[in-house]
Specification:
By secondary structure, chain A is of the alpha/beta class. Helix content of chain A is about 45%, strand content about 10%. Chain A has 3 domains: about 1-65 and about 190-300 and about 495-545, Glycogen Phosphorylase B (Rossmann fold, 3-Layer(aba) Sandwich), CATH 3.40.50.2000; about 80-180, no CATH class; about 305-380 and about 390-495, Rossmann fold, CATH 3.40.50.2000. The chains are: A alpha/beta (about 575), B mainly alpha (about 475).
Chain lengths: ~575, ~475
């Protein structure tokens, strides 16, 4: 099977966010072929160099870098009129509002129908623009042209437009047009022909947004089924990044509506969606994704390096609490320090190790603040009158002599604490679970989903509850051990790389079995060739082995000398 | 430490969960709250932890493990639970309308949001989860956000002043635009005082320096082309590059014609040329240095009028309500800037003529200057084709005017020279460049009046990410 992997320019290049995950996926599914299509994210990444790619990656295509200028293409009036029609339809659908409010039951069938109608208009206009870009090229200049801005103005002044859109002034219109041009860059790519994404049996977009838009167009042009993996919901990060101070209300309303419509179209057309956690899943469902087509696939972590620590619970110092992570205000270390002072009242011997480096300037400032607070709350202590004392709270970084590696940092603690007020998918918690340590965490983000029943959960911003949970665990080594073992078992079951890859393997097969690409193969005279793509062409593994085995008739087919690689991952098993 | 930290910048969170329900089954974090919410706040926080409560998760081997230690009032907890059961709300101080408190806390977010989903995203970033929303009797954060969005009056608050990045006056480009004029003056002075071989050196050196200086002056400041022109090497293909090169060649040809063209045409018409140009203003092949020097010095007024146009257009962009308003306001601006430049060029021409003691050919120089300014303005505002066409047409006309009399010398082709001879006979040699450049400049002026008065031509090139 051939998979077109569309990334946002971070996979085949060093330093991308999703690079590690995509690399593991591609390496883990060696029986499939991968074509990688990398969008550009504004920065030119080619200088950073590529990660070495395994042989199953047949080719890598990178979109040309973005430039602000137009492409110098001048269209004829017929093309211009077609463009104005499509763009006008698109912005009319956008100006009518974004994702509709949840409709309860069938009572509001009329408005539901009009929403469907608008969604259809948006989709058709989008595909119309894509076809225009494919036939005539030069969409970049057209999207910034006066035609586009005038169409936008007309749509904003139309009677059914959003109320905020009515107030749009000329700079707002220009800003919206420029943003739409950027967002619609994937339309101008030449990836949707029969020599590119058209050859794939499946298109896997590793993020929502532009990558999924490219997949959407491949689905439109070549009927390639689309799989969208979203670890962070694009629409949501758009809203967070595009706050009230960044632009005028009209711009924000129009762009929010555009991204909402785009997300809804992607969710509507994708064959399957794989959110990274239940939270992303809820957003997708809110934007109109069909619940039956969503499969949550947890991100996988390499468990190998935690194996040694996880199998030696005796390495833990029974009085030490450990916090591991990147220091930033959202982690609420202050509340952790206050909680620890409560712990010290109950357990005077307890120690707290905070392991992690600050992220950015804000993180460094916060770390300084926390250090000062720790020095204030806890005076240095010494064993006796003649010993040099030290603070019960220590701030360390990975690589320091006491914590040379990440597993060592977890190994030292009897209890791993997570005190965040805001959290996405808590990677640190998963690592602690791999290490078989009992955990106390705050009820934020996907924590409850990850921890299941194998650790203690307290409300966020509640130092006393945190302290009580820590004391309870510090005093009960048996319970600690039980929880730790359960957490490790749960993590090995759910959050390993192998689980992630196996899940995607299954999803690939499911998609290809449900919506296979139906290609018509023509012979030399142009006649369609029936049965040219047999069903076997989609079974995993290379079915066209150059040295086909000829078996004697007496031997049953299952008794081949070489084992057939049918379920490759089952053989490897979870480590 | 983790590759996923960035990617999952997903900030779903819970902050003001004053009572956490027990960690329920693993797969239903968004399920209904089963435990009765207990009023608990800082004032009510009690010291006694509560042991295992609620249902243990199915996969927890430790039956007491999946607890949530919620602070509960040790004394009177029962009564509180009773009260909560009755009202089923979990606000801190028993307010009748729990959403109101939340609304008050997130008032700014709710007032400035353009969309219920934006409120939902903001609430989640502040730590509100579905479990919190359940305390407000909502199924999830989305429906809570919808209520908040509906309840907050959408005050048309003070509109954020959309400050477009106004083009700034920088010392760099202001000085650079003076450079061609200064170098031109130096070259002309050098030509005047030297003779023989050094003079040739001065001429070549001056030409080289002038072309470099002019290029530098046109690459910075308000006359600079859009960024795309500089990126042609990387991406957007050979078309832009071809247009740029063609424009450049035509510009050189037109300047060259302004320098020696009239003299050459005269010599051609009178049977010459017999000698190469001497560089003197009078003689068999006169060289007109004054108009060229004035044109070089006019880089500065050109840059300033382009700056005036750009800055004025930005101001009118911010001020206008619709695209029609902007066009109406931008038209006088464009023509004003153009007239300003023509005035400055006339003054410069007169000055150069006086200083160099040369006759100044006003019509050719003015039309050529106008053509150059309009071409550059259009290029700077992302219209490359029309200037290239106009410059090309003007250069071609001048070339034809030179070639036709030469072709007329061939036997039997004398009729070819007739139009040029008629024209120069009526109005002199100056008629050829004046007509060529004047027509092209008029065409460009008409085009600029249509395109440069549109808002899209003055859009800031950067877009919000």
């Amino acid at each position: 099977m051939r998979v077109g992997l569309v990334t946002e320019g971070d996979f085949p290049y060093v330093g991308g966010d999703a690079a590690l995950w995509c690399d593991r996926l591609v390496r883990g599914l060696g029986q499939h072929e991968f074509d990688v299509y990398a969008l550009d994210r504004g920065r030119v990444r080619q200088d950073d160099g590529r990660v070495p790619l395994p042989p199953q990656v047949r080719r890598v295509r990178t979109a040309p870098p973005r430039t602000a200028g137009d492409d110098g293409v001048t269209h004829g009036w017929r093309t211009r009129r077609r463009f104005a029609e499509c763009y006008g339809e698109l912005v009319t659908a956008v100006c009518a509002g974004g994702v509709p409010a949840a409709v309860e039951g069938a009572a509001d069938a009329g408005s539901q129908g009009s929403h469907d109608d608008l969604a259809d208009r948006f989709g058709n206009a989008l595909y119309g623009l894509a076809e225009l870009a494919r036939d005539k090229g030069g969409l970049v200049g057209a999207l910034r042209s006066d035609t586009a801005v005038r169409a936008l103005e007309r749509a904003c002044r139309a009677p059914h437009a959003l109320r905020t859109a009515h107030e749009a002034r000329v700079p707002d219109l220009l800003a919206v047009a420029a943003h739409l041009e950027r967002a619609l860059r994937p339309l101008s790519l030449d990836w949707y022909g029969d020599d590119a994404l058209g050859t794939a049996d499946l298109c896997h977009a590793t993020t929502g947004g532009p990558a999924a838009l490219a997949g959407l167009l491949a689905r439109h042009f070549c009927d390639v089924p689309l799989l969208v993996t979203e670890y962070g919901v694009r629409l949501r990060s758009h809203y967070l990044a595009f706050g009230p101070d960044t632009a005028a209300p009209a711009v924000r309303a129009l762009l929010g509506a555009f991204h909402g419509r785009l997300a809804a179209e992607i969710y509507r057309r994708a064959a399957l969606l794989t959110p990274g956690n239940a939270h992303a899943r809820r957003w997708q469902e809110r934007c109109g994704a069909d619940r039956a087509r969503i499969r949550t696939v947890y991100p996988g972590r390499a468990a190998d390096r935690f194996t040694e620590v996880g199998e030696s619970p005796e390495r833990a110092d029974p009085r030490t609490l450990v916090w591991v992570g990147r220091v930033e205000p959202a982690k609420d270390l202050v509340s952790l320090l206050h909680a620890f002072s409560e712990v010290r009242k109950e357990e005077p011997e307890a120690r707290l190790r905070i392991v992690g480096s600050p992220s950015g300037a804000a993180g460094a400032e916060y770390l300084g603040h926390c250090r000062a607070l720790a020095a204030q709350l806890f005076p240095d202590e010494a064993e006796g009158a003649h010993a040099v004392g030290d603070n019960p709270v220590s701030f360390e970084e990975i690589g320091a002599p006491d914590a040379p590696t990440l597993p060592d940092a977890y190994a030292a603690g009897a209890v791993v604490v997570l005190s965040s007020v805001v959290e996405g998918f808590p990677v640190g918690l998963v690592e602690a679970m791999f290490c078989g340590r009992a955990t106390v965490s705050t009820d934020v983000g996907a924590v409850v989903e990850v921890i299941g029943g194998t650790g203690l959960v307290v409300p966020p911003r509640n130092p006393r509850a945190l302290a009580e949970a820590c004391v309870a665990l510090l005093r009960d080594p048996e319970r600690r051990e039980r929880l730790g073992a359960a957490a490790r078992a749960r993590a090995l079951e759910l959050f390993t790389v192998e689980q992630n890859i196996a899940a995607f393997h299954g999803i690939y097969l499911e998609i290809v079995s449900h919506c296979p690409v139906r290609r018509v193969v023509l012979d030399e005279s142009g006649e369609p060739l029936p049965f040219a793509t047999p069903a076997e062409s989609r079974v995993p593994g290379r079915w066209t082995d150059p040295t086909a085995r000829v078996l004697p008739r007496s031997t049953p087919t299952w008794a081949t000398p070489v084992p057939v690689r049918a379920t490759p991952l089952a053989a490897e098993g979870p480590r | 430490m983790s590759d996923l930290d960035d990617r999952t910048a997903d900030r779903g969170a819970g902050t003001d969960l004053t009572e956490s329900g027990p960690a329920r089954g693993t797969w239903s974090p968004a399920g209904p709250v089963r435990d009765v919410p207990t009023p608990a706040g800082p004032a009510r926080d009690a010291a006694t932890p509560v042991g295992p409560s609620g249902t243990p998760a199915p996969d927890g081997p430790d039956r007491g493990a999946p607890i949530a230690i919620g602070p509960r009032a040790a004394a009177g907890a029962r009564a509180d639970v009773e009260g909560a059961r009755k009202w089923a709300v979990g606000p801190r101080r028993g307010v009748g309308d729990p959403v109101k408190a939340l609304l008050h806390r997130h008032r700014e977010l709710c007032e400035r949001a353009v969309d219920p989903l934006e409120i939902a995203a903001g609430l989640e970033a502040h730590g509100v989860t579905d479990r919190t929303a359940a305390r407000f009797r909502h199924r999830d954060v989305f429906s809570l956000a919808e209520e908040l969005y509906a309840r907050v009056p959408r005050t048309a608050g003070p509109r954020p002043t959309t400050a477009l990045p106004a083009p700034r006056i920088r010392a760099g480009w202001a000085l650079l635009t003076l450079l061609p004029g200064a170098l031109g003056a130096a070259t002309v002075a050098g030509l005047r005082v030297t003779h023989g071989h050094p003079r040739l050196m001065v001429a070549f050196g001056g030409l080289l320096a002038l072309s470099l200086a002019t290029g530098a002056a046109l690459r910075h400041g308000p006359l600079a082309g859009p960024p795309g022109t500089r990126a042609w090497r990387t991406a957007l293909g050979t078309r832009t590059r071809r247009i740029t090169l063609g424009t450049r060649a035509c510009t050189f040809w037109l300047l060259g014609y302004a320098l020696v063209g009239d003299g050459l045409l005269h010599a051609v018409l009178t049977g010459g040329p017999d000698t190469p140009p001497t560089g003197a203003p009078y003689g068999p092949w006169p060289t007109a240095t004054a108009p060229v020097l004035a044109l070089l010095a006019a880089c500065a007024p050109a840059a300033w009028s382009a700056h005036l146009l750009a800055a004025g257009a930005r101001r009118r962009l911010v001020g206008s309500r619709g695209l029609g308003d902007f066009t109406a306001a931008a038209k006088p601006l464009l023509y004003g800037a153009f007239a300003l430049f023509l005035g400055a060029l006339t003054a410069l021409l007169a000055l150069c003529g006086t200083v160099l003691h040369e006759p100044v050919a006003f019509p050719q120089a003015l039309t050529l200057g106008a053509l150059f300014l309009l071409a550059r303005l259009l290029t700077a505002h992302r219209h490359r084709r029309a200037p290239a066409l106009a410059l090309g047409a003007a250069a071609a006309t001048e070339t034809t005017a030179l070639a036709l009399p030469l072709a007329g010398r061939l036997p039997g082709c004398a009729f070819l020279a007739t139009p040029v001879e008629t024209l120069t006979g009526a109005w002199g040699e100056a008629a050829v460049p004046t007509l060529a450049c004047g027509t092209a400049a008029l065409a460009l002026l008409w085009h600029a009046g249509r395109t440069l008065t549109r808002a899209s031509a003055h859009a800031p090139s950067g877009a919000p990410e």
